[in-house]
Structures are given as C-alpha cells and as structure tokens.
Write a structure and sequence with these properties.
It is built from eight helices and eight strands. It is α/β, with parallel strands linked by helices. It is elongated and about 65 Å long. 27% of the residues are buried. Residues 204-209 and 215-223 have low confidence and may be disordered.
C-alpha cells in the first residue's frame, strides 16, 4: 500500500486538502485524514490530480531517434504529469499497415514508461494516394488516424478516407491546409474557392458541427 498525505486533491472540480490511500495501483480511500502503517508520501504544498492526457506528441522513434525516443519522450511526459499520450505517425517506417503497426506497438510496449497510443497514418506513407486499411489497424486497438503535418492533399482521397472512417467508426485528424485556413475564418467570412471541393466532401458526410467534432477530432480547426 501507499499513502499520499496532505496533498491538495482535485475532486469534482474543487481542490481540497485530502489523504489518498492506494493499494495495488488502485485508489481505495480518499479522506481528510488517513492513518496507515505503509509507504507514505508527504504531498504538502503539492497538487494531486488524475493523470493528464496529451493527444498530440512526437516521439520520433523509429527513424528519427536523434530528435526524440519513445523512452525519453515518455519520461518527459511522466515528469509533467502526463500518464497517457498519443504519438503522431511521423516515424519511419510509417505506421500505415497492420504488420508495421504491430512492430511499432511492441517497441512502445518495451520503451515507454507511460500509456502511449500510436496514431496510424490516414494514407500510405502520408502520400495522399491510397487510404490505409483502417479496419485491420482498428482490430489492433488503434482507433485514431492522421497524416500529421502533411495532411490529406486531395478531395478524392479525403472522401474515401471519410467513408472508411465512417464505416469503421474511427476519428482522424483533418487536412492540414483546410485546418490552417478555416482556423483563420471569422463568422460571416466566405470560404476560399480553392477549398470548395474539400469542404463539400465534408458536408456530404457530416450532418452537423457536433458530429464533425466527434468524427474528425479537429481541435485546432474547431476550437
């Protein structure tokens, strides 16, 4: 068992001074004062919150380990209180098929010190030419797709990707150019003509803004 004493604990959107008793990795008691003969951490002056989640990190391994590794990146996440992170697919080889994703998951399992969930690419090698096998990748437990900083470049591939995403009930990050442009628009502005095709494809498959948020998970574009 482990006892965390005197911490400022976030409970129901309020911060209160509490003690927390943990057994086998699970919280079994939160109270004003807990007396227990066990490993004790004095959290005086510290805030105790649930593990944070970051849905957009770059660990760069494999392929670019000179920039960051899964191990060092996850250590940094843990140091900042982030216990779950979602790693973007800008690694080599691209996590764009079932076999590559399996190898990537095994590497993450070996090297990460926090819960690390890898994104799969939307298109093979992020080249906007062929949509990945979303169904097969989803069966590995990966339910999120992105071409990261590249974005899906053509309306035809975007339409196919959205169809497959809808069919497999998975979200993905949206076209980079579209996101960048729409984020600058104000209410009442006119959508630029060069984006008509892409926006039209979105409107065909999205009934309302709430569904758009849920399906595309495009926080940067819609916030």
């Amino acid at each position: 068992m482990r006892l965390i004493k005197n911490g400022q604990v976030l409970i129901d959107k309020r911060v209160e001074k509490k003690d927390i008793l943990i057994d086998e990795g699970k919280i079994i008691q939160i109270d004003d004062s807990i007396l227990k003969d066990c490993d004790t951490v004095d959290a005086t002056g510290l805030t105790v919150i649930p593990g944070l989640v970051d849905v957009h990190v770059h660990f760069r391994e494999p392929g670019h380990s000179e920039k960051e590794t899964i191990h060092t990146g996850s250590l940094a996440a843990a140091h900042g209180g982030f216990t779950s992170v979602f790693a973007m697919p800008n690694v080599i080889p691209f996590p764009d098929d079932v076999d590559t994703m399996k190898d990537y998951q095994q590497l993450i399992k070996k090297e990460s010190v926090v819960h690390t969930y890898p994104y799969a690419c939307i298109t093979l090698e992020e080249a906007s030419k062929e949509v990945v096998d979303m169904k097969g990748i989803k069966e590995l437990g990966v339910r999120w797709f992105s071409d990261d900083g590249v974005g899906v470049a053509t309306p035809e591939i975007m339409k196919e990707a959205m169809e497959k995403a809808k069919e497999n009930d998975v979200p993905f990050y949206q076209d980079n150019k579209l996101a960048e442009t729409l984020s600058k628009l104000q209410i009442g502005d006119t959508i630029p003509p060069e984006l008509y095709d892409v926006v039209a494809e979105i409107l065909v498959f999205v009934d309302d803004m709430d569904k758009m948020k849920a399906k595309l998970q495009q926080a940067d574009m819609l916030s």
